[in-house]
Specification:
15 helices; Butyryl-CoA Dehydrogenase, subunit A, domain 3; globular; six-stranded mixed sheet; binds flavin-adenine dinucleotide; alpha+beta; 49% helix; four-stranded mixed sheet
């Protein structure tokens, strides 16, 4: 395994990565991007074990309800790059099982890759979402044939791919890009049915980074986003050669969706777990600011916080149901329940704006206008700000100002905007989550129950 310092050094590998118009020499030393590298490096140090075959505890495949719960709790405490690496490995192993019958050699290749990746202790990011062009048209019908990643050349020793994958979390900070089709493909879309592992520093890979990291001299005014951020990468494959041993699927449209479907479950479980914590934190902020404002006993404030608590508890209950109802596969791995994972993720995404609306409604305008920490330190203004930001003797103005900064940073500034969109889009948009929920809901059972209730069971369709 690698230590944090070895990980930092490994990133200086000639990768072509850009940030705000300039080429980045080394992501590990760039003043903004290094913040993400440092949190990933801390993950390396935390899980480091000596020995050639050592594998970090975060990689453990859960085999029971208790182990799945432990793994979910552990992943709540790791940085995003460590988490997506785990989700990628689980995706690959799940996909290997699912393609085994039809493509045994490809399944063997995937398993060999996973072993090697674990031995090298590399970090893997997930490249699924294509540029997609006109959304109403299929990949093969686009004006620009590169709107979806595709194979442009086949050689005896590998393939050349072209296209772009957008919004890829931490792409520039990992070592490998797990590049898989974004959706099902049809006959005639063989070139788009490509799944492969691409090193970040492969010639032709270019990554453009974006981030919500605050551009402000004093990050004390951004107590959350100033300490931790994960840039998204706009990943371009400008004719990238991939050797055969890294190609997991090529030219088999009927299996193209297997990889994205295998990923969806792990990704949404991770999303659901972080929503459960995020929702509880929003309740916490609402209660803290209502207490600081002196309104914690006021009826409409209590009602709003009660509604927030109900939402937060429902999200946690669906996480708990997803874990408790996990399915154990034939090789002993515990898979979270698909229905509870998806409905929880959907409910969390759909109701996030209500949670934030209540918090802003309760908190007041200082969410946006609380003076900065530097103004609090200014000898001319500091004592006056403290006086007027305080609400009574036991509510200090500095404390209340800091609370407002945390609320603004989390919900109403760059990170807040990022969270609002990400909750809805990450792991597929709301529509995609509704489709998957519907797929797993037992509609026939519901119809039978309705007919029984109406004393019309004779109309029930029996299998
Ligand atoms: C912060 C962030 C991090 C992310 N991280 C990753 C990552 O690590 N890896 C990754 O691969 N992706 C990642 N994503 C991408 C995410 O999965 C996509 O944003 C999401 O799947 C939606 O795709 P899109 O952005 O292209 O929007 P669109 O597909 O354009 O969707 C916009 C709307 O159009 C609707 N729509 C689109 N096509 C159709 C159609 N044919 N018929 C009907 N309705 C349609 C959608 O339902 C949605 O309502 C991330 C996104 C964000 C915001």
């Amino acid at each position: 395994m690698m230590t944090g310092d070895q990980y930092r050094a490994s990133l200086d590998d000639g990768r072509e990565t850009y940030f705000e118009g300039r080429r980045v020499d080394n992501v590990a030393t760039d003043p903004i991007l290094k913040i993400t590298v440092d949190s990933a490096a801390a993950g390396y140090d935390r899980f480091y074990k000596p020995g050639d075959d050592a594998v970090g505890d975060f990689m453990a495949v859960p085999g029971s309800v208790a182990e799945l719960r432990e793994q979910v709790e552990l992943h709540e405490t790791v940085d995003l790059l460590t988490h997506v690496t785990y989700a990628s490995i689980m995706t690959l192993l799940t996909a290997a099982d699912r393609i085994e019958a039809q493509l045994p050699d490809n399944a063997a290749r995937i398993r060999a890759y996973v072993k090697d990746a674990q031995r090298r202790d590399v970090r893997i990011t997930q490249c699924i979402t294509d540029a997609k062009g006109d959304r109403s048209r299929k990949p093969s019908q686009q004006d620009d044939p590169d709107a979806y990643v595709r194979v442009v050349e086949r050689r005896t020793d590998g393939v050349v791919i072209r296209g772009a994958k957008l919004h890829i979390s931490a792409a520039s900070m990992g070592h490998e890009l797990m590049t898989i089709p974004t959706k099902a493909m049809r006959a005639g879309e063989e070139d788009y049915s490509i799944a492969a592992m691409v090193p970040v520093n492969a010639p032709g890979v270019k990554i453009v980074n974006t981030t919500y990291y605050p551009r402000h001299e004093d990050v004390r005014d951004f107590p959350v986003s100033g300490r931790q951020h994960t840039p998204e990468g706009f990943v371009i494959f400008d004719d990238v050669f991939v050797p055969n041993e890294r190609v997991f699927l090529d030219g088999v449209p009927e299996l193209a969706a297997v990889f994205a479907h295998s990923l969806g479950l792990w990704e949404r479980l991770g999303g659901l777990a972080s929503m459960a914590s995020g929702y509880d934190r929003l309740v916490g902020f609402a209660q803290l600011i209502s207490e600081a404002n002196g309104l914690e006993r006021t009826a409409h404030v209590r009602e709003k916080i009660s509604e927030m608590m109900i939402n937060a508890s429902l999200i946690r209950a669906s996480l708990e149901a997803a874990i408790s109802n996990c399915k154990i596969t034939s090789d002993g791995a515990a898979f979270p329940d698909e229905l509870y994972t998806n409905v929880g993720k959907y409910h969390g995404a759909a109701n996030y704006s209500t949670m934030v609306r209540h918090l802003h409604d309760i908190a007041g305008g200082s969410v946006l206008t609380a003076p900065s920490m530097a103004d609090l330190e200014n000898t001319e203004t500091g004592h006056l700000i403290r006086k007027y930001m305080g609400t009574r003797q036991d509510v200090d103005g500095v404390y209340r100002t800091k609370l407002f900064h945390a609320i603004r940073d989390t919900t109403a500034d760059a990170l807040g905007g990022w969270s609002a969109v990400t909750n809805i889009q990450a792991g597929g948009g709301l529509y995609a989550q509704r489709i998957v929920s519907r797929m797993h809901y037992d509609l026939e059972r519901a119809k039978r129950m309705a007919l029984e209730h109406a004393h019309m069971s004779e109309y029930a369709v029996t299998d």
